[in-house]
Design brief:
Blueprint (H helix, E strand, L loop, with lengths): L10 E3 L7 H8 L5 E6 L1 H16 L4 E6 L9 H13 L7 E6 L1 H13 L5 E6 L2 H7 L4 E6 L2 E8 L4 E4 L9 H18 L1 H9 L1 H5 L3 H21 L15 H10 L6 H18 L5 H14 L10 H12 L5 E6 L8 E6 H11 L3
Parallel strand pairs: 1-8, 2-3, 2-4, 4-5, 5-8
Antiparallel strand pairs: 6-7, 9-10
Helix pairs in contact: 3-4, 5-6, 5-9, 6-7, 6-9, 6-11, 10-11, 10-13, 11-12, 11-14
The structure holds nicotinamide-adenine-dinucleotide and zinc ion.
């Protein structure tokens, strides 16, 4: 459960879960007339039938709305088109909208569900590891603006989340890796047992073993869910620890014009934050090296991209509207212990990036 008072919701995680989605929805939400599945051609082709059967066998009236694949789905014009489709299907306040896809479909569908008829119920059925371990819960929704990512959005919690790790066997390896970046992050900031598990199961995880993935998704959901429960709107600095690795990561994504995938950028960012932590005497070099070994074993390319440290710092400033002379960082304090948030001087940051081989 993600505990949010009257907005609390269950997150189900297990291999083969998709066959039970219809039953579980019927048990949890009694009176609804119709549901609309929002998905992409590709996802529908590989996994649509199992979701459809699961809903139809419980007598649920289903319609399907297709959106473009990947980041292209997250636009104002796609949101408008989707709203038109929902209107055409007669989706009303009593209906349910199901996001069936990765984080992109989830963010778009969540956004539309939050504004359509001033808000309708949303169910997330995430189909990427990143979406199962991270973006499918927490209620952040968004579409992009030409001036930047996620600049238009809202908070709209789902009513239920269903993560079937069997769906991940069709996911390209680079997408598995992208999700594993966030899972490792959860291990570092909150759960040494999770970190140990990833160390002991690197092969199974990259090969999309459904049981190994179910373990890491479950742990991730528990960790993120607890932080969301304490700080739903990311306004108290509690949920902010989930940004570990993301300050540098985001800057690298922007500088590479999204050539560097999110998870890969986060992996590089986690190392940088850990090195800063060493300088602040909050963690040991042994912990940084353990993290580096694990990421390497999973297959991350940790060679620093050749952007000048000063360029990276400038992008961080633009990105975070940081204070002059320093940038706020999530600083790890070991593996599995709560991080701290600190203003890090540009000087230390540049020194760290240089010593890691950036530029
Ligand atoms: N709302 C949040 O809290 C939050 C958190 C993190 C990231 N995000 C957002 O999530 C998005 C990234 O999500 P993502 O990494 O899931 O990428 P994605 O949604 O773009 O999916 C990646 C690719 O995998 C394909 N795919 C999805 N499921 C598949 C399956 N089972 N088998 C085969 N292929 C499949 C998709 O078609 C797509 O091409 C970004 O837009 C990011 O901003 C949101
Ligand atoms: Zn992330």
């Amino acid at each position: 459960m993600v505990e949010l008072g009257e907005r609390s919701y269950p997150v189900h995680v297990s291999p083969g879960l998709i066959g039970n989605v219809g039953t579980l929805i019927k048990e949890h939400i009694s009176s609804f007339e119709k549901c609309a599945i929002v998905t992409t051609d590709l996802i529908w082709e590989v996994h649509g039938r199992s979701l459809l059967e699961s809903l139809e066998k419980k007598g649920i009236n289903v319609m399907k709305a297709l959106v473009p694949d990947g980041e292209e789905a997250k636009s104002w014009s796609v949101a408008e088109k989707l709203i038109g489709d929902l209107l055409e299907y007669g989706i009303d306040k009593q209906s349910i909208v199901i996001a069936f896809g990765g984080g992109a479909v989830g963010d778009l569908t969540g956004f539309v569900a939050s504004i359509y008829l001033r808000g309708v119920s949303l169910i997330q059925v995430p189909t990427t590891l990143l979406a199962q371990a991270d973006s499918g819960l927490g209620g952040k929704t968004a579409v992009n603006h030409p001036k930047g990512k996620n600049l238009i959005g809202s908070f709209h919690q789902p009513s239920m989340v269903f993560s079937d790790t069997n769906l991940l066997h069709t996911l390209p390896r680079k997408e598995i890796l992208s999700g594993l970046g966030e899972v490792v992050k959860h291990g570092v900031i909150a759960d040494q047992t999770l970190f140990n598990f990833i160390e002991g199961n690197t092969g199974k995880l990259v090969d999309a073993d459904p049981d190994a993935l179910a373990y890491v998704v479950n742990r991730s959901v528990a960790i993120k869910g607890a932080l969301v429960a304490l700080d739903e709107r990311d306004s108290r600095g509690v949920r902010a620890v989930l940004n570990y690795g993301h300050t540098t990561g985001h800057a690298l994504e922007i500088l590479s014009k999204l050539e560097i995938k999110h998870g890969e950028a986060v992996a590089l960012g986690m190392i940088v934050a850990s090195r800063i932590s060493e300088s602040l005497r909050l963690t040991t070099s042994a912990d940084t090296e353990r993290l580096r070994r694990l990421l390497t074993a999973l297959g991350f390319d940790l060679k620093p991209p050749q952007f000048a440290p000063i360029e990276i710092v400038e992008v961080m400033h633009r990105d975070k509207k940081a204070m002059k002379g320093s940038i706020r960082f999530v600083i790890p304090t070991g593996i599995g212990s709560p991080p701290v948030i600190r203003a890090v001087s540009e000087h230390l940051l540049i020194q760290t990036l240089e010593s890691e081989g950036y530029g």
